Amino acid sequence: MKEKILQKSTELFLTLGFKSVTMDDIAQELGVSKKTIYNHFKNKTDLVEGVTTNIFENVCKGIDQICSLDQNPIEELYSIKRFTMQYLKNEKASPQHQLNKYYPKIYANLKNKQFEVMQDCVVKNLNKGIAVGMFRDTIDVDFISRIYFHGMMGIKDIKLFPLQKFSMNTLLDHYLEYHLRGICTDKGIKKMNQTIIKNK
């Protein structure tokens, strides 16, 4: 039952937002009483923490699988982008913004975990790109990996990038191209242009 609660709550939170969804909504969607949910989660904050941990672990597994395919570094970034957009339902409800606003402790903890995982993933991607001649060998890998993470967090700020004006999919496309144009060799730019056409 706990897995069912997590699954349904994840779906509702990602679609409607962490603030909007109540325990009553979740109970109704599952066709159970609120008491059943409280048997597994002591309150909504506990449930939100369970859901964010679950999302984080599933996204990490998906990214690990993509990285194990040994694609070229540019295709790898676009594959990760496609997977996360699909899994996070295009982030239409700006879950990160709501999580930060209403559950700041959970958000801060999640952000730290995201940084550790993403830092490792991006450093490997950058080093692979340098090794195959797609990324310039003069880039500062540590700096680029950190600025990449900061930018990824930044484009999810709905005050800066309102969802009415920018879809998350469009923002990620723009950001990936912005990132790659700053680090690619001529060979990398050619591959990036081919990947962009293929992903349209």
From TrEMBL:
It holds the Pfam family TetR_N. Residues 22-41 bind DNA. GO terms for molecular function: DNA binding. Coiled coil: none annotated. It comes from the Bacteria. The keyword DNA-binding applies. Keywords: DNA-binding. The keyword Transmembrane does not apply. Residues 1-59 form the HTH tetR-type domain. This is TetR family transcriptional regulator. The lineage of its organism: Bacteria, Pseudomonadati, Bacteroidota, Flavobacteriia, Flavobacteriales.
